[in-house]
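Entry for the shared binder. Reason: the reviewer on the internal report wants the predicted structure included alongside the sequence.
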Amino acid sequence: MSMMEQDPEQTYDVLIVGGGVNGAGIAADAAGRGLSVLLCEKDDLASATSSSSSKLIHGGIRYLEHYEFRLVAKALAEREVLLRAAPHIIWPLRFRLPHLPSLRPAWMIRIGLFLYDHLARRASLPGSRSVRFGPDSPLKPGIQKGFEYSDCWVDDARLVVLNAMAARDHGALILPRTRCVSAQYEGAVWQVLLHNEFSGEQQRVKARLLVNAAGPWVQSFIEEKLHRPSPRHVRLVKGSHIVVPRLYEGPECYILQNDDKRIVFAIPYEGEFTLIGTTDKEISGDPGKVEIDADEQAYLLSIINHYFKRQITDRDICWSYAGVRPLLDDESSDASTVTRDYLLTLTGMAEGGEDGARAEGGAPLLSVFGGKITTFRLLAKEAVDKMQAVFPDLGPSRTQEQTLPGGDFDNPATLYDRLKAEAPWLPDDVARRYVRSYGTAVFALLDGCTSLAAMGEDFGAGLYEAEVQYLRRHEWAVQAEDIVWRRSKRGLFMTKAQQSRLQEWLNSRND
């Protein structure tokens, strides 16, 4: 639905600014509880922080050193919930922690892993254990001992899109590439001016509650768009990653300690690559214009070369990306120790606290400060729970039991067998990718296709026209970048000429 197709007289219960994981999660929860929801995002869904993560659902073992037990316990419990909700895009991953006695003593690591195993109930993930690295290890010969534990991998950008789809399934209107120009509270409702960046179209919409889930722009949105002081401040911390050809065989992730007390992950990525990150570098300026710098690149390369037999240089880097984490300002002196927890503020309510009734003429604004991808669902639940101050008849959240679109299956191998039985002509590598990207939604993607020829043009790396059409019609994809870097990750395998051909094809359909 475009902006022009809206009912100009409709007043939405909730208007959410920000199409990252927190905004999409809040939209899904709020719409699932019966509220009318509009979400606007100035760029593509997940185009900033939420597609620039280390792509992990994890408790954050290093946060134990900073005594963040509550945050770690919440995150550990969420791993099991999210595994059930999205088994196509989230799956278990074993982490290997090589032990260097000069950095952290073994007893400290054992205590940390014991807490990691027991701070929350584990239903499916195996616990930690000690490991020995033999001559076949990818690590240097001097590294012989270590530890192993469980966390999960996630396709971060698809997690955002699936939450947006879940919200739409419950009636929410999702408007990517639609910027919030201004918002004023008039006549007991928010009057919000929206501008579609793609079409140039503008329209005013009304909402009873405004949610500021603008991520790195959460503070500037309040100060520059609403012209009021922000109740809290965020610190903008850049995290950069590099992708190189696969460093080692095996499905495990390596978690590497550094002498600055930070850790770096080396993660198997898209079959043929290793994803390496992340850095912590405080920035100022526009968070939408960040990229890895030479110092960060050298930092990541040096840590990898300190641990692995295979030595790499900047010439091995296939791709890099950087994102900005909007961390709640807790006055830590070091960016790497700033809390990854979140804070929700509900302002514009009656005197007597955030949970009081709305003041006459008050402007209810819910703002999201901080957070991490692992706890997005809990954040969304707590955010919508706070809305009960505005909507007294609001029911309970159901997201803990619900699956995300495409996640209604028990076993990926069984789903793969079903897909191959129904579409035996589909190449094996494409079928496997479809299962892990779309789950049961793959059958909607293949609707009407009875042969590989019916899938249409192959734009490169097995990205067929049928998939592109599905992404345009169901997942808000407009540009080639949306498809090859966020929806499918095919950009790692496609040439620039192939990506240009895809953009040319899209331009002919988007006119």
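Summary line for the report: The chain has 13 helices and 18 strands.
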